[in-house]
């Protein structure tokens, strides 16, 4: 089941050990001009974030922002999509031993940024800053949006075909 969260800021604070956050679509609300982060993780131990999509719409600094203390270790950030963000994943201050793997980064200035964190693993991710009509992503869920640089606009996968955001056929 996929859950869409249209937010201003989401803060996960003091998360229980072993928590899994999965199958969310997290995006900035259209009426918000700019945002520091879509999701901030604080005091998390053995946190898994998987099969989520983070849409920044060119208005968000950090998609997934982990700011730890001595209790913040072993994040597993796997099989997610990060779209149109300045920093897709930002691991800061003691977000140690994080694994960022098998994610897709589209149109992110910095896909993964590590600051004051040790032992982080970055592996098997896909990075695409320019997505044209010819290399549209495949295997995406219905509702997936991205900016097509050939068309100079956002388009959406409806489960069968690519459409305009309002659902009308591409011209």
Core attributes:
single chain, 171 residues, mainly beta, 5-stranded parallel β-sheet, 19 strands, 0% helix
* Basic shape: elongated
Order of helices and strands: EEEEEEEEEEEEEEEEEEE
Number of helices: 0
Q: Name the beta content range.
A: over 45%
Spatial order of the strands forming the largest sheet: 1-4-7-10-13-16
- The percent range for helix content is under 10%
Determine Rg (CA atoms, Å).
16 Å
Describe the main β-sheet briefly.
6 strands, parallel
Alpha-carbon distance between the two ends = 31 Å
Could you give the count of β-strands? 19
In terms of per-residue confidence, which ranges show pLDDT below 50 for 5 or more consecutive residues? 1-10
For the residues shown, what is the average pLDDT?
Answer: 81
Structural class: mainly beta
Write structural notes for this entry.
By secondary structure, the protein is mainly β. Helices cover 0% and strands 47% of the residues. It has strands at residues 3-7, 10-13, 20-22, 24-28, 35-42, 48-50, 53-55, 60-67, 76-78, 81-83, 87-92, 99-101, 104-106, 110-115, 121-123, 126-128, 145-148, 153-157, 162-164. The chain has a 6-stranded parallel β-sheet with strand order 1-4-7-10-13-16, with no helix packed on it. A 5-stranded parallel β-sheet has the order 2-5-8-11-14, with no helix packed on it.
